[in-house]
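Input.
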Amino acid sequence: MQLNFGERLGSINWTVRRYQTAHCIRQAIGCIVGFSGRVVEYILPMDAPGTRLESPRRPLPRWLWIAAIWSGVGLFDATQNVFVMRAEGMHHAWTRLFATLLLSWLPWALATPFVLGLSRRYPPARWKRFSTWGMHLAAFATIGMSFAAWSAVLEAFLNPWALVPGPDPLATLWLNKFYNGLLSFVILYCAILLVGYMLDSQERLAFQQTETARLNEQLTKAQLHALRRQIEPHFLFNTLHAIAGLVREQRNNAAVTMIAGLSDCLRRVMEDSNRQQVPLGEELEFVQKYLDIQKVRFAERLQVSVHVPSELFPAQFPSLILQPVVENAVKHGITKRVQGGAIRIAGFRTNGTLTLSVYNDGPGLPAGWETTNSGIGIANVRTRLQGLYGDQFEFTMKNQNPDGVEVSVSVPFVSLPVPAAFEE
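Output.
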């Protein structure tokens, strides 16, 4: 069977780089910290059905979350005080009192980004260092004095408590506000530090998990590439050994034809060296070239039939997986028999699974073959399938009645859009 295929498909990766916090789409308060300066790279492999690029929702600005949180605190404080005092029959300038209590939280809102930044430069975990205590005490005193001064100014000019003849002097109000609010200042400052430390810890943990996943992915890819490099010389040595046999038999024309076919196969291997998965049609094309080489060697002793529906050709399949299986069938099913034999390759889809089977009508597997060394090719196939699919694959070798051996490989069915249909 001669296969004529359309344009070669490549694996498609979409890479999107964005500068953003790692947890901006998590909780709202997470955006307050604003961990910036890191490049987050998303790699969306086109190895899964229905994969598509979606524009992530842009997080709200950090200052907006800070303003919203402190506005909520101010509204709660002002509303509670005004309603409770009115319920108790007190008489104050309620509108001015509400505005004073609400606006008095402005210094804390303005200082929050600074405190969060300070918590990252001088984290509470480094409490034994004098510089940590010094910086936080200085920041605490500055914020407390600023809050007291601002509150004193508001009360001096608005007189929200309706005092007669009027509020105390500004300096007196300032000192009273500072001393009376020391405990609340400590609680608020420590609360901001705690939130900042928790969010920073979550950020570090998420970054470590991302790095671990990235390193694991690189390790897996390196292992798969190493396994692929292992099968390439194995195929090359076996083919060169066959060519040497033809030369010794003085079948020079057949040896030249086999060398030309080997050259085509090696060119294909080099071109696809960076792809772990290829369209099934390309894998079948490569197997066909390999079988053409073997046909030169065995002539009429080797009978080949391929029954794979053309609609399965775009399906993704591990590269250099079928060739070792077919080579194993040739070695054990054809070479050992004077009359040769037949090899049948079949493929079908069942629900979400793609299955390829290779059958040869040669001798069956010996008893206890599972515990013996199956050779580089089959062992390599098992290991690569495990690395690519985890436990989402099936690889079986079994005897058939009355004679022959069938090897089947089942992997998840994934079909990518193709620019041109494969033609048989």
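The beta strands are 13-19, 39-45, 277-279, 302-307, 316-318, 341-350, 353-360, 394-399, 405-412.
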